[in-house]
Structures
1.
Amino acid sequence: MGCVVTFLWLTLLISYYTAKRPHAPQPERGWTVGLEWTHPVSYGTTQEASRILWLHLAFLPFFGLVALAEIIKIYKLDDYSGIVHYFRKKDYFKT
């Protein structure tokens, strides 16, 4: 659930910055930093740029949790169902 919320928040924020921020720097308003992931590049403050970067980094724990669950499933529960199914589909185990 947290991953979905983070994804939606990031998508809405990037859409907002793309639509509402200028595509050229405006130093009088403090919008001098190019906001990554906006196309075309929009300009905003350093706080807005760091907020976008923070939301991208917020995805890492969710991927780490999935990887940890797969490691436990394979090594502790001795369940290779996901990996074997993937390799069988690719015909890696044909003799």
2.
Amino acid sequence: MVITDTTPKVKSVMEQISELTPLELIALLQLITQRLAELFHPFRPQAVQNEKERVLQTLAATGLVVKPVWDMPFPPISDAELAELAQKFTVGRPLSEIIMEEREQGW
């Protein structure tokens, strides 16, 4: 790859890079790699998914995570169903208040 940008800032950086020792150059490359990963992380959902799967596979291989041996008896509910249930169950006072009152009454 040839760098064709000849701005003074780029020239200055290139001159400084050319004076680095191999160990300094490796450290710089590691910093640049880390920074690029931070910058582009939100734009790489597949990479995030791959990393998640890799971590889960590692945990499973060590026995720290085990997949259940049973199937779910019913499919997960949709967002609309969840909103409907939340609306139905938010009637009245919070359960924590009811429990505190019952404790005060000696239940």
3.
Amino acid sequence: MAIEERWFVLYNWNQQQWRKLKMLTRLWREFEEDSGLLAGWLIKGEQTFKKMEQSPTEETSQLAAQLKELTVRKHTFEIFISFLNLWFGMLDNVCCFPES
């Protein structure tokens, strides 16, 4: 391979890595923003669960409200997990991590 061809290959590789780095930077910023939302959501959920634990009840209406709160939190958590799986999939595509 001639030196010009090697420089051309190196230049193209460098451009490709630069595009990946820009994409990775954007993804990382988005992840940081979303992880802050997740942290706040987890803290609020922990506070809610502590309140439930500290004030046990046998009233049907309160038990129903607590069950509804738990169901909503479970569903929201599943959405966050789906988001994380999607985010890690995008990260794998950008970084081209090999399967281990």
4.
Amino acid sequence: MRKMIRWVGFVGACFAMAACMTMQSMPTDEASLRRDLKPGDYVTVTRSGHSDLSFKVEGVDKEGIHGSGIHVPFKEVQGISREETSWWRTGLIAAAGAAAIVLLTTHKNSGGGGGGGGW
């Protein structure tokens, strides 16, 4: 039973970390991008006439966004989303996982009783 609880906890933790990352749309004007994007941000950029690009930002300068060997000029940015952590979702999933583990262990330890009426 303990082994199962460990696996449930491990799988739950992996799911919680994956489920708590969200992509948030950002304004596409140059001033906002220069102010809001930071090195290390993971972004997906929609470009005019091209496929979407996903990469880690290394820098933003007067010409555009740079990262992972990619340069996207500001004039090509039609849409941009940044990966962010949703802390309320993380807490909710962690609480649900903890409750599930408590229920599993309580059910296992509740005995079973059941001494009937002796008919």
